[in-house]
Write a structure and sequence with these properties.
- By secondary structure, the protein is an all-alpha fold.
- The protein has one domain.
- The chain is built from 5 helices and no strands.
- α1 packs across α2, α2 packs antiparallel against α4 and α3 packs across α4.
- The longest helix has 23 residues.
Amino acid sequence: MTRSLHLVPEPVSEPRHGRHRASADTPGGVPSQATVLALRSIPVIGWIFLIAGVVRPFRARWLRVAFWIDVVLSVGVHAAQIPAARKVAAERGISGRRAAVMTMLLGATWWRTLGEGRQ
């Protein structure tokens, strides 16, 4: 018995077996509020990890490496996103100060999902 190999990809927009992808939770590809909340929890967990590492420095080498990677991501990358976040926030009538604070806390999970979840 031989099997044929289909090289035609399945359409991305159609859910399979009733399951939706994160980007297609709601009509128009807008993520649901639960998806937005889940995404926004990731940087918060990163900040908690940083606080824990400052309060009680990690002894294990892999935790120290993870700590410094988290420092770069949470501080450096989030700060680099502030100009883009301020532009998006200004289009929605949100102050630049709030955009900067929320971007430092939540990164792109805040300014890329403005309007999809609770701010």
